[in-house]
Amino acid sequence: MMADESRQNLLSGAAVISADTDLESGQTRTTPTHEQQQQQQQEQQQQQPTRNTVRDYFEQSSHPIAAFFYLVFRLGALLMYLLGSIFTDNFTLVFVITILLLAFDFWTVKNVSGRLLVGLRWWNEIQADGSNKWVFESANPNRHINAADSRLFWAVLYGTPVLWILFALSCIFTFKATWLVIVVVAIILNMANVVGYTQCDKDAKRKWATGMAAQSAFSSLTGGAGFVGKAVSSGLGKFMSSSR
């Protein structure tokens, strides 16, 4: 009997352990409120803006593979130029890889990226007299151009040469003549695409504006001729009926 009473006293004096109590630390866990949960979600979203932006773009893009290689070759050349010396002391290796990436980027942008992302393409033809002739191609204006693809293409096209020009100034001020060679090649290849696509875009707008104006004028003339023809036919019909 005494044993049962002592057991009851021990049980009644035991501390009540709730589900929110951490047994290891002895501290009580508090359940976050709705406002705290929203704040935590906002902090997580702010910590990952770049990843969300890239993911959203590739979800919206009409040609994600073309956009991927458009970015890879350009970023690859920039990163190899900036970070290549960290991984190797062989300048020749860095030089060759950077130039190859720049060449791949030039060809891809000129022949693939522009055609798919913004519906434009350009090239040069050598004439019989040795002169160069610019040739421009543009998609039909009725073709839908993805706005996200267009923004990415033009922003990267114009932004990349600016970075290389800054690198050129850095090489000049620090007297790095060997690295300046890479930068000069990069500026030449990037500016070739900038000039080509800028002229191609202007040519496309001018060509389609002229074509639409000509089509509108032709439609007006056709409509006017049809109206005159109907009036003449009606007049002749009335004249023939009255003569009878």
Give an overview of the whole structure.
The protein is mainly α and 244 residues long. It has a domain at 50-203. Helix content is 75%, strand content 6%. It is built from seven helices and two strands, in the order αααααββαα. It has a two-stranded antiparallel ribbon. It starts with a helix and ends with a helix.
The residue-averaged pLDDT reads: 78
Q: How many helix segments? A: 7
Order of strands across the main sheet: 1-2
Low-confidence stretches: 21-25, 220-229
Topology, number of strands: 2
Percent helix, as a range, is over 70%
N-to-C order of helices and strands: HHHHHEEHH
Large-scale geometry: flat
Radius of gyration: 35 Å
Estimated structural class: mainly alpha
Give the terminus-to-terminus CA distance. Answer: 139 Å
User: What about the largest sheet?
Assistant: 2 strands, antiparallel
Strand content: 5-15%
Family: Belongs to the TVP23 family.
Pfam family, one: DUF846
Biased composition (Polar residues): 24-34
Keywords: Golgi apparatus, Membrane, Transmembrane, Transmembrane helix
